[in-house]
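Every protein is a chain of amino acids, and every chain bends into a shape of its own. The protein below has been through that process, and both of its lines are reproduced in full.
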Amino acid sequence: MDFSDPTDCLSKSSGELSYKVLTEEDVLLEKLKQIEPVVRLVVQSSEELFSVAKNKRGDNTLQATQLGKLLLKALKNGSGEFHCYFPFHSLNPYVALLFECAEKFDSVLVLSSTTKLAPSEVEKEVEILNGLVGLLRVGASGHGFKALIKRFIRAEKKRAHSLDQYIDALFEKHSRMVVIRVDLYYQPGFFNERKNLQLDLARVNADWEKLRKDLHKGLPIKGMLGFACKLEYGHLKGFHFHLLVFYNGAVYREDVVLASLVGKHWAQKVTGGQGRYFNCNKKKKEYRLLGVGMIGWSNKELVSNLKTVVAPYLIKTDYWLRFSINCGRSFFRGNMPKSEGVRRGRPRRVN
């Protein structure tokens, strides 16, 4: 299933986004995912990654192991782009450690290409790079760093487990649910000034609070069973939400219509015409692993897709990129339904 975020192409009459492509933010996220395992391997290894070699002319050249080459590639990304595109976020601890250690070296060579090194610069560069590796290993072995990693992993698992249990609890009370997925955005240019992002964040949180209350009141659709929502921010897209809403499958069937109603309510009523949305249910035929629409508890495949593909999308970035704690909450879900015990013939959990 591909839930890539949409572009700015939209229908001006409804505020509905029409198609999706990868943005530079998506590319940066992929870079983050590639950097983290490289740093892990570096700090777990003990070999010397860089050395001086001689070319055919007898000049000094930089020799790097395969892992050393991967580290050089990671360093070329630099930290500037990440902080520019994701100013509200904390980087994965391994990624943050890499850039923090690199910045301690007074050398532009660390964050630039080594292919243009003059022979006279090679020995110094090898010393710097091996020094960086040593600093990484020392930093990763510290108690504080290990505790930080544990907190990152624990928070991610806790949120995933909470959402998994929440879906199970909803299925305990309802044999069929209509699951809709809507991405909620603001019109292009709404946050262009970016003079006070904290003020913008306050406006966004107020809009979310209004939408949450409306959904509970039955606006625009009566009888919401539950919801899960993730707030995200990107330099290009600004603040946006990924929203999952559950309705009773014994009452409703047209998931595409329901998703459209929620999206239009956000775009027109909640934001006063400043919002836009993407109706994921409208594209469900294109998903390789379908986990939205009408889902019955007995359909193990659809339930599994919902729990292992669709729902985790709401927290997919948290291990690599996480909202800073001073920004407040970024993940929301409804209250856990009161348990009425296991229904006859129904498993409590569907894996």
Summary: Strands lie at 50-54, 60-64, 89-91, 176-186, 224-234, 238-248, 275-279, 293-296, 321-323, 331-333. The first helix runs from residue 24 to 44.
